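Figure 3 (text version): structure tokens given as input.
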């Protein structure tokens, strides 16, 4: 039987599972991933939705209204948090503790046929998932319009995004308060010593020299003419990376297919972000589509500024 209706489509994807197979082996890792996906999937029927299919380390679901879909997304994140916390308390491997969840929702007319769903909303939700950072929920403007006003206030506008395989851009919003790293200023190099709260970040590439403060976040770096900070290079994706202001720190999230790389000043290590996030501090360079160690890679210099750096003051 074929059914055509307007529904909210949810895609969720478990990230970090690759390391589980390396640490635990195929059999045990498969068991852990299956158990994790099954656990987070329970939020769908509990919130009035229907699981259409599981996708290895992810799932697709549909809901009659957007509020149900958002509630399920929030519950999924909480359920994964609880699983990871219990694993940490029981001494689980670092691979299990590193599991993250990305969720994307879109709304529109879909065709339900033979147990599957088709339509533009399905394609948009699936492609939008590629742009989600660690433990983030992204929604389209159509989903946003179906949410209560109180729920809408929890989202930040990411402006228009170009999704792979789609000619028209999509207006996207991100749920605040959930990030892949904690609210403290931590990086892959450990905790950053307490300093004056940063006020802005300066980005420099060739002749471009722009300063963005927290009120003008998020900032998308990419090759697209619609990107806030444009880097016109073939290695750079149209929407390659995103800068956010969150919890008193600036964070960069990779949205690309070729990866984003960060090297801090006076550090030899390069932080590789593959759909991951990293807190920016001090100064350094951001490689878009290639490591800063590659002299041919397009690199953006950054400098995190405090109030004293950005405002003239007497000596």
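Below: residues designed for each position.
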């Amino acid at each position: 039987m074929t059914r055509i209706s307007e529904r909210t489509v949810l895609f969720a994807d478990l990230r970090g599972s690759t390391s589980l197979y390396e640490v635990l082996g195929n059999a045990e890792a498969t068991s852990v991933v299956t158990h994790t996906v099954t656990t987070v999937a329970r939020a769908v029927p509990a919130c009035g939705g229907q699981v259409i299919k599981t996708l290895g380390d992810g799932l697709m679901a549909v809901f009659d209204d957007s509020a149900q879909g958002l509630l399920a997304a929030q519950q999924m994140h909480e359920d994964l948090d609880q699983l990871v916390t219990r694993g940490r308390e029981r001494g689980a491997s670092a691979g299990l503790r590193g599991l993250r969840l990305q969720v994307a929702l879109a709304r529109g007319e879909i065709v339900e046929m033979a147990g599957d769903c088709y339509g533009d909303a399905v394609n948009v939700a699936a492609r939008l998932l590629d742009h989600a950072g660690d433990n983030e929920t992204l929604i389209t403007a159509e989903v946003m319009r179906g949410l209560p006003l109180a729920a809408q206030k929890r989202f930040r506008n990411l402006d228009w995004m170009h999704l792979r395989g789609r000619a028209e851009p999509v207006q996207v919003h991100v749920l605040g308060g959930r990030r892949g790293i904690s609210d403290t200023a931590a990086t892959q190099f450990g905790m950053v010593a307490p300093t004056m709260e940063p006020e802005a970040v300066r980005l420099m590439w060739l002749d471009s020299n722009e300063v963005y403060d927290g009120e003008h976040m998020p900032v998308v770096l990419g090759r697209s003419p619609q990107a806030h900070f444009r880097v016109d290079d073939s290695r750079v994706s149209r929407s390659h990376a995103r800068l956010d202001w969150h919890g008193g720190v600036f964070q960069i999230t990779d949205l690309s297919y070729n990866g984003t790389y960060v090297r801090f000043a006076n550090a030899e290590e390069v932080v590789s972000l593959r759909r991951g996030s990293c807190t920016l501090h001090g100064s350094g360079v951001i490689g878009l589509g290639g490591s800063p160690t590659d002299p041919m890679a397009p690199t953006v210099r950054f400098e995190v500024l405090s109030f004293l750096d950005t405002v003239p003051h007497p000596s």
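Residues 177-196, 308-315 have pLDDT under 50 and may be disordered.
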